[in-house]
C-alpha cells in the first residue's frame, strides 16, 4: 500500500485554500466553544446518544440546513461563473466538481434529511405513538447519513471532489476517464448514507403499520402520515437498486471489474438504467412527504378538513406505483426505439393525472375556508403556481419526441428546479414554520419570515425562469462557460441576479432562526395554530414520552374532533401509568465513526487499513447482538410533575378555541 | 401575491417576445419542424392548464382570505365531491390523450426517413465522438472531417452514431433532435436541411473537462457545391493513417481537420469487440489518483487484442456483451 502523503490535501486553488482554512478555524472554534461552555457531557448524553425521535429529527434538520448552505454556495459559485460569457472565475474542472456536489448534496444531504427530520419529529406524534418502532435503529440511520454526508463533504479539500455529475454516468465516471479518487467518494459516501435511508424506510413502515394509537385506522391518519408510509415503501423498493448500482460502481473503480466500463464488454447503459430505476422514485421520495406537509398546512390554515381525503390517498398510491415505471424518460435519446419511448412517455404523462387531482383537492380545501396567511401557509400557497409551472413543463419533457430537443438543456434544469424547489424546499420551509413551536416551544418570527418568503420566492423565479428560455435557445446544462456570440448573456446575467436574491432569502431564514432563538416569546400555547392533528394535543416542546396517556382517535382530524367535542383534553391523575421508554445508546455514533473511517480508507483505496477499520463495524454488530438493555420506566410522579407544568398554564387548550 | 403575479406576467411577456427567435422554434428542416409542431401543440394545452389553475388559485385565495370582517366565519365541514373529483381526473386524462397521440406518431416518424424524402437516396455519415471532438466519416466518399460536417441540402442524411470514448449526445437543434453516441454500439438519427446554410451543433451530454467547447458546424450545401467540396478534399486533403487517428483520439481540443480515407477501414467503434482507445494517464486533475487498470482490449496491447478477438469468435460466452443493444 503506497500512500502519497503530499497529494492528499488539494493544493493550488485559492478558493479551496480559503475553504480549508475556514473549515479548520470553524472546527477549532466549535471545539473551543464547547469546551469553554463545558457542554461536552451535555452534548453526549442529550444529543449524540439520544434515541428520542424528536431529537433525532432535530439533528437531521440541523444537518440539512448546513448542507443547504453548502449546496447553495455551490449554486452561487456556478451562477457567478456563468454570469458573463467566457468568465474566468472557475476553471472547467472546478465547475464540474461544483455542479456534481451541488446536485448530490441538495438531493441526498439536504432534501432527504430535511424531510426525514420532519417525519421523525412529527410522525410518531401524529399517529399517537411514543417513539418509532426501532428507536436505536433510527439513531443509527441518522448517524450513517451523517457519516456519509461528512465523508462526501470533505472531498473537495481532501483528495478531490467527484466530477462526473450527480448522475455519475459511465464510462465517464469510471477509472478510464476519471482516474482520480473523486468518484470513489460518490460510490462510498452515498453507499453509507443510503444504508441509513433504507433503514429509515423500514423503520417508518413498521412504525406506521404497528404503532398507531387506539382508533387510528389507516383511513383516519393525517395525510403526512400517509405520504410518509408510501414514501417509506418507495424507499424500501428503490434504495436497494442504488445499493447494488453503487456496489458495482465501487467494484469497477476499486477492483477493475467491467460492469459499466467502455472496455472489456462493460455497458454504460446498464448504469443509466440502474441509476434512474432508483433516481426517479427518489424524486417521489422527496416529493410525496412534501405533499403531505402541504396537506397539513393547507387544511390547518383554511380551517377545513382536507378536501377529497380518499382520492388524495389513492393519488399518492398511484404516483408511487407509476414512479417505478417511468425511469426511461431520463434517456429517451439513448436510442431505445419508438415503442419503448412511447410506453415511457405515456406512463410519465399519466403521473400528471394524480398530481393534478392533488392540486385541485388543495385548491378546494381552501375554497369556502378562512385562509390565514401565516408564513407556513404562504409557502404552501406559493407552491401551487410555481409547482404548476414545474408540472406542465414536466409533461412537455415527458413527450419523448419533444424531449429530443429539450434533453440536457437548461430547459430541463429549469423544469426540475421548478419541481424540486416549490415541491420540496417550499414544503420544508412550510413545515419548519408550522412545526417549529412544537419542536422548540416558541415560534419563528413572522415578520422576518415574510422577508425570507418574498426574497426567496422572487429570487427563485428570477433565477430559474430565464433558464427555460435559455434552454430552448440551445444552452446546455453543465457547461462551465458560453461564448459571447451565443447571445445567452442577458438571460444568464438575469439568472445570476436572481440567485443573489435567492441567497438573501436564505440569509433572512438563518437570521430568523437566530432572532427567534434569542428573542421569541416563550409563553405560547401548545396549540398555537388551532390545528387539527394529534401532535398538537401534547406539550410544546414535546415531553420525551410524547403522551402521558395515549389519545384515542374517533375520526379524521383527531385533535380537531377532540377540541370540538371537548373529549380527552384533560388528564386525571388516576389515568397516569408508568411509561416504558428505550435507553440511550452510544453505539450508533460509534458505528458512524467506524463507517466514516472505513469509507475514507476505501475512497483512498487503502484496502488493508479499510479492512482493519471494518473490524470496528463487525465489533459493533456483535456488541449490539448481545445487548439486552430493555429500556427503563418513567415513574408516575415524574409524569405528574411534567404534565402539571404545562397543562395548567393560562391559554392552554381545554376547550375548542375558535 | 398581486405583486408577485404582476412580476410573473411582465417576466413572461419579456421572455416570450424574445422567445420567437429561439432556436428550437426556428426549425430548418422537416425533422426539426415535426418536433416544433409537437411542442407548439403541447404549449396550447399546457397554457390552458396554467391559465385554469392560476385563475382558480387567484380567485380562491382572494375570496376566502381571512379578513377582519370574516373572523367569526366558521368554514363548513366538507369531505369532497365525487362529481368534481371525476371531472378533474377525467379532463387531465383527456389532455394526456390529446398530446400522447401526436407524440407517439412523431416518435415513430423520427425513426424513419422524413416524410416526402422517401424517394431520395440518403447519404450515410458515420459520427464518432471522442474527447473532445466530433469525427465525421463519409464511407461512400471515403473522406473524414473533424468538428465540421458538410451535407447536401434537401437530402436525408443517415447519421450513424458511436463513440470512441465517453457517452455523448449529438444535437443539431435547427435540424432535429439529439441522440446519444455510445462506445461499442451504434445509434442512428435522420436529419434533413431544407436549404443550404450553416447550422450549429454540439454535444449535450456532459463528458468531462472539455465538454463546454464540444461544438461543430453542419454546413448544408447544394448538391453541386457538395460534390465539388468532396472532389476538392479528395485531391488536396492528407491521408488519414492509423497513427494519426490514434493521435486524434487522445483527449484534446482540435480545430477543423479534413482527411482522405476514413478510420472505418481499421476500426469501427460501434462493433462490440472493437479495440478500446482509452488514455487514463492523460486525464489529470488536482485530486489524488487511484489505481488505474491495464485493459487487455486497449489498442496499445495490439497483440492481446488480436488474441482476444480470436477468443471471442471461438467462445460464445464472450459474445454479445453490448452487441444486442446496438441501435436501429
TrEMBL record, chain A:
EC top class, as a word: oxidoreductase
Pfam families, sorted: COX1
Origin: domain of life: Bacteria
UniProt subcellular location: Cell membrane
Major location (coarse): membrane
Pathway assignment: Energy metabolism; oxidative phosphorylation
Catalytic reactions of this protein: 2 a quinol + O2 = 2 a quinone + 2 H2O
Domain Cytochrome oxidase subunit I profile: 36-554
E.C. number(s) listed in UniProt: 1.10.3.-
Keywords: Cell membrane, Copper, Electron transport, Heme, Hydrogen ion transport, Ion transport, Iron, Membrane, Metal-binding, Oxidoreductase, Respiratory chain, Transmembrane, Transmembrane helix, Transport
Bilayer disposition of the protein: Multi-pass membrane protein
Cofactor: how and how many bound: Binds a copper B center. Heme A3.
Family: Belongs to the heme-copper respiratory oxidase family.
General function of this protein: Catalyzes quinol oxidation with the concomitant reduction of oxygen to water.
PANTHER family noted in UniProt: CYTOCHROME BO(3) UBIQUINOL OXIDASE SUBUNIT 1, CYTOCHROME C OXIDASE SUBUNIT 1
Name used for this protein in its record: Quinol oxidase subunit 1
Species of origin: Robertmurraya mangrovi
Gene designation per UniProt: qoxB
TrEMBL record, chain B:
Keywords: Cell membrane, Copper, Electron transport, Membrane, Metal-binding, Oxidoreductase, Respiratory chain, Signal, Transmembrane, Transmembrane helix, Transport
EC number(s) from the headed UniProt entry: 1.10.3.-
Location, primary (coarse class): membrane
CDD domains: CuRO_UO_II
Superkingdom per UniProt: Bacteria
SUPFAM superfamilies to which the protein is assigned, alphabetical: Cupredoxins (SSF49503), Cytochrome c oxidase subunit II-like, transmembrane region (SSF81464)
Domain Cytochrome oxidase subunit II transmembrane region profile residue range list: 16-114
Biological role: Catalyzes quinol oxidation with the concomitant reduction of oxygen to water. Subunit II transfers the electrons from a quinol to the binuclear center of the catalytic subunit I. Subunits I and II form the functional core of the enzyme complex. Electrons originating in cytochrome c are transferred via heme a and Cu(A) to the binuclear center formed by heme a3 and Cu(B).
Listed NCBIfam families: CoxB, QOXA
Protein name: Quinol oxidase subunit 2
Amino acid at each position: 500500500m503506497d500512500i502519497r502523503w503530499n497529494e492528499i490535501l488539494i493544493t493550488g486553488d485559492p478558493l479551496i485554500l480559503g475553504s480549508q482554512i475556514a473549515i479548520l478555524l470553524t472546527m477549532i472554534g466549535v471545539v473551543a466553544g464547547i469546551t469553554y461552555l463545558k457542554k461536552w457531557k451535555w452534548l453526549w448524553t442529550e444529543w449524540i446518544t439520544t434515541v428520542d425521535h424528536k431529537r433525532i429529527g432535530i439533528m437531521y434538520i440541523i444537518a440539512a440546513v448546513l448542507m443547504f448552505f453548502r449546496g447553495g454556495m455551490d449554486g452561487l459559485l456556478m451562477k457567478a461563473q456563468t454570469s458573463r460569457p467566457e468568465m474566468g472565475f472557475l476553471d472547467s474542472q472546478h465547475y464540474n466538481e461544483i455542479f456534481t456536489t451541488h446536485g448530490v448534496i441538495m438531493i441526498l444531504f439536504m432534501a432527504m434529511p430535511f424531510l426525514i427530520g420532519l417525519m421523525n419529529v412529527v410522525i410518531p406524534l401524529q399517529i399517537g405513538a411514543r417513539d418509532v418502532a426501532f428507536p436505536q435503529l433510527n439513531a443509527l440511520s441518522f448517524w450513517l447519513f451523517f457519516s456519509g454526508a461528512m465523508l462526501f463533504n470533505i472531498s473537495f479539500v481532501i483528495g478531490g471532489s467527484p466530477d462526473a455529475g450527480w448522475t455519475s454516468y459511465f464510462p465517464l465516471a469510471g477509472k478510464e476517464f476519471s482516474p482520480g479518487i473523486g468518484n470513489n467518494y460518490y460510490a462510498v459516501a452515498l453507499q453509507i448514507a443510503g444504508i441509513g435511508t433504507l433503514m429509515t424506510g423500514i423503520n417508518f413502515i413498521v412504525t406506521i403499520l404497528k404503532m398507531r394509537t387506539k382508533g387510528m385506522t389507516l383511513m383516519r391518519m393525517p395525510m403526512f402520515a400517509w405520504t410518509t408510509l408510501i414514501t417509506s415503501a418507495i424507499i424500501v423498493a428503490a434504495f436497494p437498486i442504488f445499493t447494488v448500482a453503487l456496489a458495482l460502481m465501487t467494484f469497477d473503480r476499486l477492483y477493475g471489474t467491467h460492469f459499466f466500463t467502455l472496455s472489456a464488454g462493460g455497458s454504460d447503459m446498464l448504469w443509466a438504467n440502474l441509476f434512474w430505476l432508483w433516481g426517479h422514485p427518489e424524486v417521489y421520495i422527496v416529493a410525496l412527504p412534501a405533499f403531505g406537509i402541504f396537506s397539513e398546512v393547507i387544511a390547518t390554515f383554511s380551517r377545513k378538513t382536507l378536501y377529497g381525503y380518499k382520492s388524495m390517498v389513492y393519488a399518492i398510491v398511484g404516483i408511487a406505483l407509476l414512479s417505478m415505471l417511468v425511469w426511461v424518460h431520463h434517456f429517451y435519446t439513448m436510442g431505445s426505439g419508438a415503442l419503448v419511448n412511447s410506453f415511457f412517455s405515456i406512463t410519465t404523462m399519466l403521473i400528471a393525472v394524480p398530481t393534478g387531482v392533488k392540486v385541485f383537492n388543495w385548491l378546494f380545501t381552501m375554497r369556502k375556508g378562512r385562509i390565514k396567511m401565516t408564513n407556513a401557509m404562504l409557502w404552501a400557497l406559493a407552491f401551487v403556481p410555481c409547482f404548476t409551472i414545474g408540472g406542465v413543463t414536466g409533461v412537455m419533457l415527458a413527450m419523448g419526441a419533444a424531449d429530443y430537443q429539450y434533453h440536457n438543456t437548461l430547459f430541463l434544469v429549469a423544469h426540475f428546479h421548478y419541481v424540486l424547489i416549490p415541491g420540496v424546499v417550499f414544503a420544508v420551509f412550510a413545515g419548519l414554520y408550522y412545526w417549529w413551536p412544537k419542536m422548540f416551544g416558541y415560534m419563528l418570527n413572522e415578520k422576518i419570515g415574510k422577508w425570507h418568503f418574498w426574497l426567496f420566492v422572487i429570487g427563485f423565479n428570477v433565477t430559474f425562469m430565464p433558464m427555460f428560455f435559455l434552454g430552448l435557445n440551445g444552452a446546455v446544462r453543465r457547461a462551465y462557460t458560453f461564448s459571447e456570440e451565443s447571445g445567452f448573456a442577458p438571460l444568464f446575467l438575469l439568472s445570476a441576479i436572481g440567485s443573489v436574491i435567492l441567497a438573501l432569502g436564505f440569509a433572512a431564514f438563518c437570521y430568523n432562526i437566530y432572532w427567534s432563538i434569542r428573542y421569541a416569546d416563550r409563553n405560547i400555547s401548545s396549540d398555537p395554530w388551532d390545528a387539527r392533528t394529534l401532535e398538537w394535543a401534547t406539550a410544546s416542546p414535546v415531553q420525551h414520552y410524547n403522551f402521558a396517556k395515549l389519545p384515542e382517535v374517533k375520526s379524521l382530524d383527531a385533535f380537531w374532533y377532540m377540541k370540538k367535542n371537548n373529549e380527552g383534553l384533560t388528564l386525571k391523575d388516576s389515568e397516569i401509568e408508568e411509561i416504558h421508554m428505550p435507553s440511550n445508546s452510544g453505539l450508533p455514533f460509534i458505528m458512524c465513526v467506524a463507517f466514516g473511517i472505513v469509507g475514507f480508507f476505501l475512497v483512498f483505496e487503502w484496502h488493508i487499513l479499510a479492512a482493519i477499520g471494518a473490524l470496528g463495524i463487525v465489533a459493533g454488530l456483535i456488541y449490539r447482538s448481545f445487548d439486552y438493555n430493555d429500556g427503563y420506566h418513567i415513574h408516575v410522579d415524574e409524569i405528574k410533575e411534567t404534565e402539571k407544568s404545562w397543562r395548567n398554564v393560562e391559554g392552554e387548550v381545554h376547550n375548542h378555541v375558535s | 401575491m398581486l405583486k408577485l403575479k404582476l412580476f410573473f406576467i411582465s417576466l413572461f411577456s419579456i421572455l416570450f417576445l424574445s422567445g420567437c427567435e429561439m432556436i428550437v422554434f426556428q426549425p430548418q428542416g422537416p425533422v426539426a419542424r415535426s418536433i416544433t409542431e409537437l411542442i407548439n401543440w403541447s404549449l396550447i394545452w399546457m397554457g390552458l392548464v396554467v391559465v385554469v389553475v392560476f385563475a382558480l388559485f387567484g380567485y380562491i385565495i382572494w375570496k376566502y382570505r381571512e379578513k377582519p370582517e370574516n373572523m367569526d366565519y366558521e368554514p363548513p365541514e366538507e369531505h369532497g365531491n365525487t362529481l368534481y373529483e371525476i371531472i378533474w381526473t377525467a379532463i387531465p386524462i383527456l389532455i394526456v390523450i390529446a398530446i400522447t397521440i401526436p407524440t407517439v406518431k412523431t416518435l415513430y416518424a423520427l425513426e424513419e426517413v422524413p416524410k416526402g424524402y422517401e424517394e431520395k437516396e440518403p447519404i450515410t455519415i458515420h459520427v464518432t465522438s471522442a474527447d473532445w471532438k466530433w469525427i465525421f466519416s463519409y464511407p461512400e466518399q471515403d473522406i473524414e472531417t473533424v468538428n465540421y460536417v458538410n451535407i447536401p441540402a434537401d437530402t436525408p442524411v443517415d447519421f450513424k452514431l458511436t463513440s470512441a470514448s465517453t457517452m455523448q449526445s449529438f444535437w443539431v437543434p435547427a435540424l432535429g433532435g439529439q441522440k446519444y453516441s455510445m462506445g461499442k454500439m451504434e445509434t442512428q438519427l435522420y436529419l434533413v436541411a431544407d436549404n443550404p446554410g450553416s447550422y450549429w451543433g454540439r454535444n449535450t451530454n456532459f463528458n468531462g473537462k472539455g465538454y463546454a467547447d464540444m461544438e461543430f458546424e453542419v454546413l448544408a450545401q447544394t448538391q453541386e457545391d457538395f460534390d465539388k467540396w468532396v472532389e476538392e478534399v479528395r485531391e488536396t486533403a492528407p491521408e488519414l493513417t492509423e497513427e494519426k487517428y490514434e493521435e486524434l483520439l487522445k483527449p484534446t481540443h482540435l480545430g477543423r481537420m479534413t482527411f482522405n480515407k476514413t478510420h472505418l477501414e481499421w476500426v469501427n467503434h460501434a462493433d462490440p469487440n472493437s479495440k478500446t482507445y482509452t488514455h487514463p494517464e492523460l486525464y489529470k486533475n488536482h485530486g489524488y489518483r487511484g489505481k488505474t487498470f491495464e485493459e487487455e482490449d486497449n489498442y496499445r496491447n495490439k497483440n492481446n487484442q488480436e488474441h482476444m478477438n480470436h477468443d471471442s469468435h471461438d467462445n460464445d460466452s464472450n459474445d454479445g456483451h453490448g452487441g444486442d443493444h446496438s441501435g436501429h
